[in-house]
TrEMBL record:
InterPro entries: AcuC (IPR003085), HDACs (IPR000286), His_deacetylse_dom (IPR023801), His_deacetylse_dom_sf (IPR037138), Ureohydrolase_dom_sf (IPR023696). SUPFAM superfamilies: Arginase/deacetylase (SSF52768). Pathway: Ketone degradation; acetoin degradation. It comes from Streptomonospora litoralis. The lineage of its organism: Bacteria, Bacillati, Actinomycetota, Actinomycetes, Streptosporangiales. Residues 22-318 form the Histone deacetylase domain. Coiled coil: none annotated. Belongs to the histone deacetylase family. PANTHER family: HISTONE DEACETYLASE HDAC1, HISTONE DEACETYLASE HDAC1-RELATED. Keywords: Acetoin catabolism. The gene is acuC. One of its GO terms (molecular function) is histone deacetylase activity. GO terms for biological process: acetoin catabolic process; epigenetic regulation of gene expression. This is Acetoin utilization protein AcuC.
């Protein structure tokens, strides 16, 4: 099969909306889709765009969520009243009308993407509105009502997948997905994130390696605040390719949060769009090398709504389609006018941040005084032996 991409889309996905003052504003998804359309990403002959997505039914949501929690989400979305035991109505997770319906649609879109890959419709598939990786089995958490990422993985297991890898590059730890599969050796969860010492949710230490019988199947790289492109990619290359090559997943699911960017208002890493673009290419190669090309791509965090998210995710979807966008390209004039109309903000002029950098492989030498190298080594020592790999250089 030639490199092909199915994009699970429905205009209703923008109804996942906590309100105009909330950081997770759906305009970021709207601007991404508009920018991709202007660049013709969805017009390519190998790209299919869904004409509607079915919301996840209660039985499907029940693969990862408690039934009483699903009912609580339904009640909260109708009564518009908080439900404290379920973390609904907090500042992070405000109640909004038809919350269940909007959240179930996001979940359904991620399962649709997973089904397109599993059933052979497309080599790659994406739900850019997904990646709500914090939601727990019985409560909302960190802007996330239903955990569509975990649901996509659980659905693949239900279909008979024996090995699914989940790689999360959001600046925040993928705690909800890790929790749901912590004791399951069929699922390898890998999360690169800012250290829990400085950022929500306060988990994701390298010592979190999996439950009994699944030791080494939770992999956490906790990076210090201030980590830049070259150091982040050094950590990625030192850990992610080796564990994926050893695990040999049938499907690779990735959560592509772009809140690692230096402009993101909620976190403290220092990546650029150019560094993030390098990540997409690396994950694409790893999907081909380790998972037979089967790659499910989900969105995630990202709170610089105009300057970062649309450009980063347009590069991502283009990469998944097999044809990269020129980073030196100017953003289309029609899109700039749309940005001003929708947000009143000044749009970015180019698809690059103009960053150039070199990545020195970890194998070239370990610096015991460098905090990024310390983080890399802590993770390798924690998980590599469980997979029969030597953590030393």
């Amino acid at each position: 099969m030639a490199c092909s991409l199915h994009v699970a889309w429905d205009d209703g996905l923008t109804s996942y909306n906590f309100g105009p003052q909330h950081p997770l504003h759906p305009v970021r998804v709207e601007l991404t889709m508009a920018l991709c359309r202007e660049f013709g990403v969805f017009d390519r002959p190998n790209v299919a765009l869904s004409n509607g997505v079915e919301p996840a039914a209660d039985e499907l949501l029940g693969l990862v969520h408690d039934s009483d929690y699903i009912e609580a989400v339904k009640r909260a979305g109708k009564a518009l009243e908080p439900d404290d035991p379920y973390c609904l109505g907090t500042s992070d997770n405000p109640v909004f009308p038809d919350m269940h319906e909007a959240s179930a649609l996001v979940a359904g879109a991620s399962v649709r993407a997973a089904s397109a890959v599993w059933n052979g419709e497309s080599e790659h598939a994406a739900n850019i509105a997904g990646g709500l990786h914090h939601a727990m089995p019985g409560n909302a958490w960190g802007f996330c009502v239903y955990n569509d990422a975990a649901l996509a993985v659980a659905w693949l297991l239900e279909q008979g997948a024996k090995r699914v890898a989940y790689v999360d590059v959001d600046v925040h730890h993928g705690d909800g997905v890790q929790t749901m599969f912590y004791d399951d050796p069929r699922v390898l969860t890998v999360s690169l994130h800012e250290s829990p010492m400085t950022l929500f949710p306060g988990t994701g230490r390298p010592t979190e390696t999996g439950g009994p019988g699944a030791e080494g199947y939770a992999v956490n790289i906790a990076l210090p605040a201030g980590t830049n492109d070259s150091r982040w990619l050094r950590a990625f290359e030192a850990v992610v390719p080796p564990v994926l090559r050893e695990f040999q997943p049938e499907v690779l699911v990735t959560q592509q949060g772009v809140d690692t960017h230096a402009l993101d208002p909620l976190a403290n890493l220092m990546l650029s769009v150019d560094g993030q673009r390098r990540t997409y290419s690396a994950l694409h190669r790893l999907a081909k090398e380790t998972a037979g090309g089967r790659w499910v791509v989900l969105g995630g965090g990202g709170y610089e709504l105009v300057q970062v998210v649309p450009r980063a995710w347009s590069h991502l979807l283009a990469e998944a389609s097999g044809t990269q966008l020129d980073p030196a390209a100017e953003t289309p004039q029609n899109w700039r006018e749309f940005v001003r109309e929708r947000t009143g903000e000044v749009p970015p002029l180019y698809m690059t941040d103009g960053r150039e950098f070199e990545v020195t492989p970890f194998e070239a030498g370990f610096d015991p005084e460098d905090p990024v190298d310390q983080a890399i080594q802590a993770t390798r020592r924690a998980v590599f032996p469980s997979h029969g790999m030597d953590p030393s250089l």
